[in-house]
Amino acid sequence: xxxxxxxxxxxxxxxxxxxxxxxxxxxxxxxxxxxxxxxxxxxxxxxxxxxxxxxxxxxxxxxxxxxxxxxxxxxxxxxxxxxxxxxxxxxxxxxxxxxxxxxxxxxxxx
Length: 110
Prior knowledge:
Blueprint: E1 6-11, E2 25-26, H1 32-39, E3 43-45, E4 55-61, H2 73-76, E5 90-95, H3 101-105
Antiparallel strand pairs: 1-2, 1-5, 3-4, 4-5
């Protein structure tokens, strides 16, 4: 099995393309303060059972729903059917290739 480099990526609510992220990319695990800054408040890990195969970890704003944050459409697309709705900016741990156009267009005909 090929060892792939993992990164931490901010998925912003205004992002509309995962290979052109507007948020920060961390090569190493961010500190608690960086995680809180990324999600805009207290952090909460999304239970692994809800994550799609390509997402290792997802960190959300613990109070996002209470604060009325907007839906994060790209982050919600990284979750299994039936997962709780994700709002606000999130932080995900993924393989480096996850943020390339080739990853998302593999198998598509031109």
